[in-house]
Amino acid sequence: MVDAYQPIDHEYALDRDCTTLSRHVLQQLQSFGPDAQDLSTLMNRIALAGKLVARRLSRAGLMAGALGFTGEMNVQGESVKKMDVYANEVFISVFKQSGMVCRLASEEMDEPYYIPENCPVGRYTLLYDPIDGSSNVDININVGSIFAIRQQEGEDLDGSASDLLQSGRKQIAAGYILYGPSTMLVYSIGRGVHAFTLDPSLGEFILSNEDIKIPEHGPVYSVNEGNFWQWDEGIRDYIRYMHRHDGYTARYSGALVGDFHRILFQGGVFLYPGSVKKPEGKLRLLYESAPLAFLAEQAGGRASTGIQDILDVIPDKLHARSPLVIGSTEDVALVESFIQERSRQQTEATAVR
Ligand code: AHG
Ligand code: MN
Ligand code: MN
């Protein structure tokens, strides 16, 4: 009788090495049906966009015309970098002929880009921040791309894309690409959060961390404290608490993707609160906060505006912003408790008057 086949050690390693992104999506869905194939293709396309952006970033300092500003302002009123434009176009170019999407909406475009009539049109919408943390680009520090996929609802005949103005619970997939010492792609299709590392020798994203869970608590608080005097008292109370208690440490890179990535693996909290002048803060709901909130919840963490779960916020316009508190459940709850306490005090003071 022949013994049952026993894989040897290197075969396990080989199996992991062969777990590419598209294979992983199909494995997770345990299906080869049309929806599973679509998601697998969509993720594969996003991976291609990530590789193209990573390739340019890796040589940008040696290339003419890759770094610096374009001299234009985007719809957010922010100065546009050449890499913002390049990365924005990469995603369009990758998806234009894919037959997967009907439109792409990005931080860098006033209106969504509709797939032209001479190209195959799909039923999904890609929402993305082509380069997150663009102030880091010129100095070779980590940046990212953030993405979310939603299904088109209705016909969008007037081109208003009003069906996108729904809560983050409508996302069917979300994630980011981190361009750091290595390039990583982290994604979720609502079945946990998984990280892939780009193996440059293969040109493939290979599974490196499966089913990541955010620790319930972590030491890091990540916030731009330069804005201290712009914030409401509740946030200032929280920061004072951080300063006065042992066991906390600050980390802030200027790129949300990098700061969130640290927290995803090691716990803690990232905050971009509203300010007195900008109560909604800086980060955009559809391309930044909601996709990362989807990941945070899938990893057992939380994302909040300070008073409401980010995934329940309904944007009033495509480029809507929202305050963001995201990370470990205990640390997000601690920030919320300071905000709620101040709001309770204000309500009491108003009642007395
Ligand atoms: P973007 O480059 O897409 O405009 O995003 C930058 C965001 C985010 O990545 C980062 O956390 C934050 O802006 C930094 O802003 P401050 O410089 O105001 O801290
Ligand atoms: Mn951004
Ligand atoms: Mn950006």
Secondary structure class reads: alpha+beta
The CATH H-level homologous superfamily of the largest domain: Fructose-1,6-Bisphosphatase, subunit A, domain 1
Largest sheet: 8 strands, mixed
- Output the helix-strand order: HHHEEHEEEEEEEEEHEHEHEEH
Number of DSSP strand runs: 15
Provide an overview of this structure.
There is one protein chain. The protein is of the alpha+beta class. It has two domains: 192 residues, Fructose-1,6-Bisphosphatase, subunit A, domain 1 (Fructose-1,6-Bisphosphatase, Chain A, domain 1), CATH 3.30.540; 133 residues, D-Maltodextrin-Binding Protein, domain 2. The protein has an eight-stranded mixed sheet with strand order 4-3-5-6-7-8-9-10, sandwiched between helices. It is globular, with a radius of gyration of 21 Å. The mean pLDDT is 93. Bound molecules: 2,5-anhydro-1,6-di-O-phosphono-D-glucitol and manganese (II) ion (2 copies). The site of 2,5-anhydro-1,6-di-O-phosphono-D-glucitol (AHG) has 11 residues, from strand 5.
Key phrases:
binds 2,5-anhydro-1,6-di-O-phosphono-D-glucitol, 5-stranded mixed β-sheet, alpha+beta, single chain, D-Maltodextrin-Binding Protein, domain 2, 8-stranded mixed β-sheet, Fructose-1,6-Bisphosphatase, Chain A, domain 1, 2 domains, 15 strands, globular, 353 residues, binds manganese (II) ion
Write the layout of secondary structure elements.
Blueprint: H1 9-17, H2 21-29, H3 34-59, E1 69-73, E2 79-81, H4 82-96, E3 101-106, E4 113-114, E5 124-132, E6 143-151, E7 171-179, E8 183-188, E9 194-199, E10 204-209, E11 220-222, H5 233-244, E12 249-250, H6 256-266, E13 268-272, H7 285-298, E14 302-304, E15 324-327, H8 329-352
Parallel strand pairs: 3-5, 11-12, 11-13
Antiparallel strand pairs: 1-2, 3-4, 5-6, 6-7, 7-8, 8-9, 9-10, 13-15, 14-15
Helix pairs in contact: 2-3, 3-4, 5-8
The structure holds 2,5-anhydro-1,6-di-O-phosphono-D-glucitol and manganese (II) ion (MN) (2 copies).
One manganese (II) ion (MN) binds at residues 84, 107, 129, 131-132, 134.
